[in-house]
Amino acid sequence: MKKLFKIITVLLLVLAPLSAGKVLLAQTTPAVDMEYEYDWDFDDWGIDTTDVDSNLTDDEAADIVAGIFATIFGGTILVFTVIAGVITYVYTAFTLQKVAKNLGEKDAWYAWIPVLNTILFFRLGDQNPWLLLLALVPVVGAFALSIISVIAMMRICEKMGYDKLLGLLMLIPLAGLILWGVLAWGKSPKKTEEKTK
């Protein structure tokens, strides 16, 4: 109890002069005149009330036109990229499904589903589908998956009766698409040999 009394006494001794000072300061503060004259000058606010077209210089107009053309060009490129991506995806899925059917794979419909198509591709190329988890490794995983994909394509070419070195065409983007078309619709040497026998 004595400790509590001492703490309260010290607090009063410390806080009393501070509160008294505030009162003294408040009483000695001069009164402020609250009447102001306002000058409503809109030029200081950054609002331009003049006609915009009359103040454009040739450089500013050229910048605006260049910005419009850049936006149109960028949008056009984006649209064509999306269309080309969809066409490439459909073509690759269709050819992968056709190759899977030619090789007797029971789940050829996997070709149309994004992750399952890679699993189907690895199964056709006699690779373990669990190797897809290498994609989680930042740089080395992508490099390893590209090598495994080329090996899988070489085995698919060999199964279809073509030279396995044709699988190296996967390293060239457009040639890889052509190779898928050849594997899907081309006359396989393996099939022609069976027909001649």
Walk me through the structure:
This protein has 6 helices and no strands. With about 200 residues, the protein is mainly alpha-helical. The model has no long low-confidence stretch (mean pLDDT about 80).
Summary?
This protein is mostly helical.
Shape: elongated
Total beta strands? 0
**Helix and strand sequence:** HHHHHH
What is the tally of helical segments? 6
Major sheet summary line: none
Helical percentage = 55-70%
Q: What do the pLDDT scores average to?
A: 81
Determine the N-to-C terminus distance. Answer: 113 Å
Low-confidence stretches: none
Strand percentage: under 5%
SSE layout and pairing:
Layout: H1 2-28, H2 58-102, H3 114-124, H4 140-159, H5 173-185, H6 189-196
Helix pairs in contact: 2-5, 3-4
Based on the model shown, name its key terms.
6 helices
